[in-house]
Amino acid sequence: MDRRAEKLVVVCLAQWLRKEITMDTLEAIRRRRRVVNFTDRPIEQSAMTDILAAARWGPSAGNQQRWRFIVVTEPETKEMICDVSPGIYGTPMAIIVICMKQRARSSKWDYWIAACEVGIAAQTIALAAFSLGIGSCMVVSFAKEAVEQILDLPEGVEPSLFVTLGYHSELPEPPERLPLSEIAFEERYGKRWKA
What we know:
By secondary structure, the chain is of the alpha+beta class. Helices cover 40% and strands 16% of the residues.
């Protein structure tokens, strides 16, 4: 083997050892599915760090970065959260609770901005997880006050959404989607998009 080939093998091996998995963004968007059946394989700390790092790069109005991410992996805490969250199915290996720091004088407009930022963060978490081979499910059905107590949230920090995570035992098939000609328009509503 020549020196150039040896170097290529070393680089490939180093990337594999660091588990540098990448995926085309559009492919990840098309293939990611809601996953509720997880294996019992724990999520590596480095993978969780990569997922959280991706989430913090999501857009934030005025770059305020008011979201906070709480990673829950301890079985007792997960069980307490699951008990007050009818939207959690299966047994996830981790739950990321996305919280939002509320302003002292919040308006209805501020609430909607926060909701958008939380949704973007959740989608970013789901896509980053999928690119690492980890399944996810977004959950909005939970008892807010109970979660605040379980996680010792300070006043002004509210749970907004959960993303459950785990390695999937199977990846569901994608559901049918409406054609663009039925949901996208040019310039005005009703003028159908031409692909």
